[in-house]
Write a structure and sequence with these properties.
Keywords: Leucine-rich repeat, Repeat
Order of helices and strands: HHEHEEEEHEEH
Distance between the termini: 55 Å
Strand content: 5-15%
Strand order of the largest sheet: 1-2-3-4-5-6-7
Number of strands: 7
CATH architecture of one domain: Alpha-Beta Horseshoe
Largest sheet: 7 strands, mixed
Protein name: TILB protein
Length: 225
């Protein structure tokens, strides 16, 4: 079929209970969906009780659907595994992210994301962006209230731009399985740029992490992987 069926607009609606009939669902061979009788017709047929019952069910369903789809005002939202394989999908996904001005906890795992620098999440306190394609901290969204940030399994090669989080309440950061993890004195460099950080890669801040890194030593040493 190359054209939509006449009932296509009803495909997401649920079945209503129909009283006083003996037909079972598995007995339907060619079901059709049609519009029900109008309020005026039900009134003249003296079947107002059917209309009232139908209205009550409809109102309840609408309210439940509104609660489920009120994603713009939600505090916690999981948008992981979206399979964004087309440019249009990516742009539409970013359009959705721009409207999340109230979200506090957001999961964006495994979405092949590369750059969200134009996105601002003013209330986001917890962001999980594991398994994406970020290569720099400057490609992350603006998250001024971030407390817990997880960026495991990306492609962040250097710690350049990490100091942008110095003035945020960031307490926990996960950078496991990123190339920057293999930098010489990696933990010292991170904690020196983020003095308020308490946990890095699941390990609390240790006394040896507090000593300032020797920048000259860092540039003299070459690490071959």
């Amino acid at each position: 079929l190359f054209s939509k069926l006449p009932s296509d607009s009803f495909k997401y609606l649920g079945w209503c209970d129909i009283e006083e009939h003996g037909v079972q669902g598995n007995q339907l061979r060619s079901p059709r969906v049609r519009e029900g009788p109008s309020e005026e017709e039900l009134f003249f047929r003296k079947e107002e009780h059917t209309l009232k019952k139908r209205k009550q069910v409809t109102d309840t369903e609408k309210w439940e659907k509104r609660l489920q789809e009120n994603w713009e005002n939600c505090a916690e939202l999981n948008l992981s595994f979206q399979d964004l394989g087309d440019l249009y999908q990516v742009e539409n996904f970013k359009r959705i992210l721009r409207r999340l001005i109230r979200v506090e906890k957001l999961w964006l795992v495994d979405n092949s994301l590369t750059d969200l620098s134009a996105i601002r999440l003013p209330r986001c306190r917890e962001l999980n962006a594991n398994k994406n394609h970020f290569t720099s901290f400057k490609q992350l969204p603006k998250i001024p209230q971030i407390q817990h940030l997880s960026l495991a399994e990306n492609n962040i090669t250097t710690l350049s731009g990490i100091s942008d989080f110095r003035h945020t309440p960031l307490e926990s950061l996960i950078l496991k399985r990123n190339p920057c993890e293999f930098q010489e004195r990696y933990r010292q460099l991170v904690f020196s740029n983020l003095p308020n950080l308490k946990i890095l890669d699941g390990i609390p801040k240790l006394p040896e992490d507090c000593s300032p890194p020797d920048v000259r030593f860092f540039y003299r040493v070459c690490t071959i992987l």
